[in-house]
Design brief:
Elements: H1 4-17, H2 22-29, H3 33-40, H4 48-57, H5 62-67, E1 88-92, H6 97-106, E2 116-119, E3 132-136, E4 151-156, E5 168-174, E6 177-187, E7 193-197, E8 205-209, E9 213-224
Parallel strand pairs: 1-3
Antiparallel strand pairs: 1-2, 3-4, 4-9, 5-6, 5-9, 6-7, 7-8
Helix pairs in contact: 2-3
Length: 228
C-alpha cells in the first residue's frame, strides 16, 4: 500500500520547489486548492487519474511519487532565473485588445511586436518571458477575483495542449475578440468546444469553437488589483 504520509511530505516539497501555490497546482491537475491541501496534510489520497497527473507534472514515475524514493532535486545555480523584478514581458492594455486579436488572426507570430513591455514585480512565479503576456482586465466578468484595471500574468499554452487544459482562468484570443475568462469545461476532444464561465454579476457560460481559437494563455498571477 502507498504510504500516505510519504506522499503528503513529498508532494508539498515538490510543489514548493516548483514555486507553485496550492491553487496553481490544483488548476494544473484539475482539483481544488482544498484537495491539494488535504493531500499535503495526509488527510486524503490522490485518485489514480490525479496521481498520474501529479507524476507528469513533476516528471516522476508513479512509483517514485507513491513511495518517495527520490533525491531532493535542486535547481543548478547556472539555470537560476534572473531576479523577477528585472524580467520584462509584453503588456496588453485593454485599449489594444481589438487590434491585438485581429493581428493574431492574420499573423500569430507577429502579434507581440506592437506591444510595450512591463517589468514584473518581485513575487511573481518563474516564467519564460518569451511565452508570457501581461493583460489588463477590462470587465467585471471575473469579479470579485479580478476587477477592471487588474493586470494578470499569463503563459502561452501550445495548441497541441489545448484539448487537455484543466479548469482555470485563461486569456483567450478567438475570432471576434480577446477575453480573460474562467474555463469550466474543456470539450475540445469531444465536441470541439470550450465552455467559458462568467463569475461576475451577469453570470452564465458560453462556448467557443475550436476553429475560432487563435491563441491561449494560462493566467498564473494577478500582478495588480485595484482597490475599490
Amino acid at each position: 500500500m502507498p504510504r500516505l504520509n510519504t506522499i503528503a511530505t513529498l508532494l508539498k516539497r515538490l510543489r514548493v520547489q516548483s514555486s507553485l501555490t496550492q491553487m496553481q497546482l490544483g488548476e494544473r491537475i484539475g482539483v481544488t486548492k482544498a484537495s491539494v491541501s488535504a493531500y499535503e496534510k495526509g488527510k486524503a489520497y490522490p485518485s489514480p487519474p490525479i496521481l498520474t497527473k501529479l507524476a507528469h507534472e513533476f516528471s516522476l514515475s508513479i512509483d517514485e511519487l507513491r513511495f518517495g524514493d527520490i533525491p531532493v532535486r535542486e535547481r543548478p545555480p547556472s539555470l537560476a532565473p534572473a531576479p523577477l523584478a528585472q524580467v520584462e514581458v509584453p503588456y496588453l492594455p485593454s485599449a489594444a485588445r481589438a487590434a491585438f486579436a485581429a493581428a493574431l488572426v492574420n499573423s500569430p507570430t507577429r502579434a507581440h511586436e506592437p506591444l510595450g513591455l512591463v517589468a514584473l514585480p518581485a513575487g511573481c512565479p518563474p516564467i519564460d518571458p518569451a511565452t508570457a503576456l501581461v493583460v489588463e482586465v477590462d470587465d467585471t466578468c471575473l469579479e470579485p477575483i479580478l476587477r477592471p484595471g487588474a493586470r494578470v500574468l499569463a503563459v502561452a499554452v501550445p495548441p497541441a495542449e489545448w484539448p487537455f487544459m484543466p479548469p482555470g482562468i485563461y486569456c483567450l484570443a478567438y475570432r471576434g475578440g480577446l477575453a480573460v475568462r474562467r474555463l469550466r469545461d474543456n470539450g475540445l476532444l469531444q465536441s470541439e468546444l470550450l465552455l467559458l464561465h462568467t463569475d461576475g454579476p451577469s453570470g452564465g457560460s458560453y462556448p467557443v469553437r475550436a476553429a475560432d481559437l487563435c491563441a491561449v494563455w494560462h493566467v498564473r498571477w494577478a500582478i495588480y488589483l485595484p482597490l475599490t
